[in-house]
Specification:
Length: 287
C-alpha cells in the first residue's frame, strides 16, 4: 500500500494564550499543499518504521511509529503489525508539518491495511496524543485551526494560487522560537477577526486572507537570521501577493496569482543559491 503524505503551510499564526498543559493557544489557517512524502505499508512480523532521510529518526522515535502504536493500543490489538517506509520529500524541521502528516497518513493507511472500522473523528482524538497538528492531516484541505492546533474546522478556499517555498538554509527550533516570543499575546487583530468570519461563513477568499496574514514568530526569526527579510523581499519583488513564514519556521513562502511569476521567482532564488520549489494547494470537499 502506498500513500501520499502532504505538507501544510500556516497562512498566518498568532499566539492568543498560554495553557496549563505547557502548550499555547493559537489561531491559524492551515493549507495543505501538494509537496508530499511517500509512505509504503507492507506486511511484517512486527511494527517498524524507517525513513530514507538520516535526519529523521527510525523506530519508536518516529511520529509515524508513535501514531501506529497509539492506534494499536487504543484498540487493544497488540498483535497488529506492519512495516512503514517513509520516502521523504518534505524538509524536516521546516514548519511544514511533515512528521505530523506522516503520523496521520500512517494511521489512515493502517485502518485500511488492518481492516479496521474507525471513524476519522476517533482517529483524530488518538492522533492528538501523538502531535497537536495530527488532527488537521486527518482531513487536510484548508482549515481554521485553534486551541493547541487540535481544534480544526475545515473551510472552503476560493481563489487560484501558486506557492513558492524557500529553504532559507537555517533551521528554527520550536522551543527556541516560543522562548524568544514577545508574550504580549494577540487577543484581537484584523487577522483574528477575519478567521472568526471565515468560521461563520465556512469559506475564505485566499487573496483577502493574504492581505491580513500575520505570523507572530516572523519578527523573532528575522532578528536572528537577517537573510529572512532578503528572501521575503525577493518573493515580493517577483510578484508574490503575500510573503511570510510557515509555523515557527524555517520555510518561507510566497503566494502568487500568476504561475509565470512563481516560476521566474524560483529561478531567481536558485540563482542566489537558495533551494526553492513550486507547489499548489490541495483542495478537499468540506463535509
Amino acid at each position: 500500500m502506498k500513500i501520499d503524505s502532504y505538507a501544510k503551510l500556516n497562512l498566518g499564526l498568532v499566539v492568543v494564550g498560554r495553557r496549563e498543559d505547557g502548550y499555547h493557544d493559537i489561531q491559524s489557517v492551515f493549507q495543505e499543499v501538494d509537496l508530499a512524502d511517500r509512505i509504503t505499508i507492507s506486511n511484517s512480523e512486527s511494527l517498524s518504521v524507517t525513513s530514507d532521510d538520516p535526519s529523521v529518526p527510525d523506530g519508536e522515535e518516529n511520529l509515524a511509529y508513535r501514531a501506529a502504536a497509539a492506534l494499536r493500543d487504543a484498540l487493544r490489538r497488540p498483535e497488529l503489525s506492519a512495516n512503514i517506509k517513509i520516502e521523504k520529500h518534505i524538509p524536516a524541521g521546516g514548519g511544514l508539518g511533515g512528521g505530523s502528516s506522516n503520523a496521520a497518513s500512517s494511521m489512515l493507511g493502517l485502518t485500511s491495511f488492518w481492516d479496521l472500522d474507525l471513524q476519522r473523528a476517533r482517529m483524530a482524538k488518538i492522533g492528538e496524543t501523538v502531535g497537536a497538528d495530527v488532527p488537521f492531516f486527518m482531513t487536510g484541505g484548508t482549515a481554521c485551526v485553534s486551541g493547541k492546533g487540535d481544534i480544526v474546522q475545515p473551510i472552503d478556499c476560493e481563489g487560484d494560487v501558486w506557492f513558492v517555498l524557500v529553504d532559507p538554509g537555517y533551521r528554527v527550533a520550536t522551543p527556541w522560537a516560543f522562548g524568544k516570543l514577545n508574550m504580549k499575546l494577540t487577543i484581537d487583530s484584523p487577522y483574528i477577526r477575519f478567521l472568526n468570519s471565515a468560521r461563520g461563513s465556512g469559506k475564505v477568499d485566499i487573496y483577502e486572507l493574504f492581505g491580513l496574514i500575520k505570523n507572530d514568530f516572523l519578527p523573532v526569526v528575522e532578528a536572528r537570521y537577517p537573510s529572512t527579510e532578503r528572501i521575503l523581499s525577493v518573493l515580493r519583488g517577483g510578484g508574490a501577493k503575500v510573503a511570510s513564514m510557515s509555523g515557527t519556521g524555517s520555510t518561507l513562502y510566497g503566494g502568487f496569482a500568476l504561475e509565470s511569476d512563481a516560476l521566474s521567482t524560483i529561478e531567481h532564488l536558485r540563482s542566489l543559491g537558495y533551494s526553492a520549489r513550486f507547489c499548489r494547494p490541495v483542495r478537499r470537499q468540506v463535509q
